[in-house]
C-alpha cells in the first residue's frame, strides 16, 4: 500500500508542472477581431471589423486580429503559427492571410503572414510596421489606435501585391433560398408541373429545352454558380424529355411557396450577420515579432 501511495504521489508531483505548463488553447475564430482581454471597446471592434471586411471584399485577402492575455509557456512565434494553422486565414491556394497577434500581459506581439503575402508583407516590412506604427501607440496605452494604424499599413502593403481578384457576388439581393426551400416537396412538384405545361405547349423537344433553361435559371438564383446551373439545366432538360409528366390541364400547385428559415448557405466566408471564417489559407512562419 505504501508503495502505491508513493507512486501516486510521484505522479502528482511530476504531473503538476506539466499541467501548469500546458500550451494556451487557440481561441475559436468568432470574428475578424477576437479580444479575450476586454482591451477594445465594442465600437472599436465594430469599426475595425468593418474596415477588415471592406478590405476583404475589395482585395480578397483576409486579415484578423487576436488579443490574448498571455501565450506562455510558448513564445509568441510558436503561438502565432498555431493560430494561423487553426484559423486558416486567407484564401485556399492563394494563402493571402495575415494575423496580428497580441499577448497583452507578455507585452509581445507578432504579425503572422501567409505564404501568398510573403513577397510583399516581408519580415522586414512587418517589423517596420510593428516598430513604427504599432508599438509607439501601445507604449502610450493607445491599443485601439496602434492596432488600427498597424492594420491600415498592412492593408496598404498588401494592396501592392498582385493577387487573384475576389469572386464577385452572383446575387446582390436576398438569395431566393432565403425564402424558398428548393428541396421542399411542394416546390419540386410545382416545378415538374410547370415543366409539363411547357412540354405540352411547345412540344416534347422545345418544351424540354425550355424546362432545362428554367431549371438552370432557378439553380443560378439559388446557388449562384454558373457551372452548377448549366449541369442542372442539362439534367432538367433530359428528365423533362424522357419523363411522362403531368399534363398542363391538371391542378396546379406550382404557385405554392414554402418558406425556409433553416437555410444557412452563403456565398462567401462571411455573411451580413457578421459571421466569419478562414478561407483555407496556409502559414509557414513568415512575419515579424516585437515588444513594447
Element string (H = helix, E = strand): HEHEHEEHHHHHE
- Tertiary shape: elongated
Report the structural category.
Answer: alpha/beta
Largest sheet: 5 strands, mixed
Radius of gyration: 27 Å
Helical content, roughly?
40-55%
Low-confidence spans: 3-20, 169-174, 245-273
Strand content: 5-15%
Mean pLDDT: 77
| Number of strand segments | 5
Euclidean distance between termini CA atoms: 54 Å
Strand order, largest beta sheet:
1-2-3-4-5
Number of helices: 8
Describe the protein.
- This protein is α/β, with parallel strands linked by helices.
- It contains 8 helices and 5 strands, in the order H-E-H-E-H-E-E-H-H-H-H-H-E.
- It has a 5-stranded mixed sheet with strand order 1-2-3-4-5, with helices on both faces.
- Helix 2 (42-59) packs parallel to helix 5, helix 4 runs antiparallel to helix 5 (143-159) and helix 6 packs antiparallel against helix 7.
- The longest helix is centred in the C-terminal third of the chain and has 20 residues, at 204-223.
- It is elongated and about 80 Å long.
Highlighted features:
292 residues; alpha/beta; five-stranded mixed beta sheet; 8 helices; elongated; disordered N terminus
Element layout with pairings:
Blueprint: H1 2-20, E1 33-35, H2 42-59, E2 62-68, H3 76-87, E3 97-103, E4 108-114, H4 123-139, H5 143-159, H6 185-202, H7 204-223, H8 226-242, E5 283-291
Amino acid at each position: 500500500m505504501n508503495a502505491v501511495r508513493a507512486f501516486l504521489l510521484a505522479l502528482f508531483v511530476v504531473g503538476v508542472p506539466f499541467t501548469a505548463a500546458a500550451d494556451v488553447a487557440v481561441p475559436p475564430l468568432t470574428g475578424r477581431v477576437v479580444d479575450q482581454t476586454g482591451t477594445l471597446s465594442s465600437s472599436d471592434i465594430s469599426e475595425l471589423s468593418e474596415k477588415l471586411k471592406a478590405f476583404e471584399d475589395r482585395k480578397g485577402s483576409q486579415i484578423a486580429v487576436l488579443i490574448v492575455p498571455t501565450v506562455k509557456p510558448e513564445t509568441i512565434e510558436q503561438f502565432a503559427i498555431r493560430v494561423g494553422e487553426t484559423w486558416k486565414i486567407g484564401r485556399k491556394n492563394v494563402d493571402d492571410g495575415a494575423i496580428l497577434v497580441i499577448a497583452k500581459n507578455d507585452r509581445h506581439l507578432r504579425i503572422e503572414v501567409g505564404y501568398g503575402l510573403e513577397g510583399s508583407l516581408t519580415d522586414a516590412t512587418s517589423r517596420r510596421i510593428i516598430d513604427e506604427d504599432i508599438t509607439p501607440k501601445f507604449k502610450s496605452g493607445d491599443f485601439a489606435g496602434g492596432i488600427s494604424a498597424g492594420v491600415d499599413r498592412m492593408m496598404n502593403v498588401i494592396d501592392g501585391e498582385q493577387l487573384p481578384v475576389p469572386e464577385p457576388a452572383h446575387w446582390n439581393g436576398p438569395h431566393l433560398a432565403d425564402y424558398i426551400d428548393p428541396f421542399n416537396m411542394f416546390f419540386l412538384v410545382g416545378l415538374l408541373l410547370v415543366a409539363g405545361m411547357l412540354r405540352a405547349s411547345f412540344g416534347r423537344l422545345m418544351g424540354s429545352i425550355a424546362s432545362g433553361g428554367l431549371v438552370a435559371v432557378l439553380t443560378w438564383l439559388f446557388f449562384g454558380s454558373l457551372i452548377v446551373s448549366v449541369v442542372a439545366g442539362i439534367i432538367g432538360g433530359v428528365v423533362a424529355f424522357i419523363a411522362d409528366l403531368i399534363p398542363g390541364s391538371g391542378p396546379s400547385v406550382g404557385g405554392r411557396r414554402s418558406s425556409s428559415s433553416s437555410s444557412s448557405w452563403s456565398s462567401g466566408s462571411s455573411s451580413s450577420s457578421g459571421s466569419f471564417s478562414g478561407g483555407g489559407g496556409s502559414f509557414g512562419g513568415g512575419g515579424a515579432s516585437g515588444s513594447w
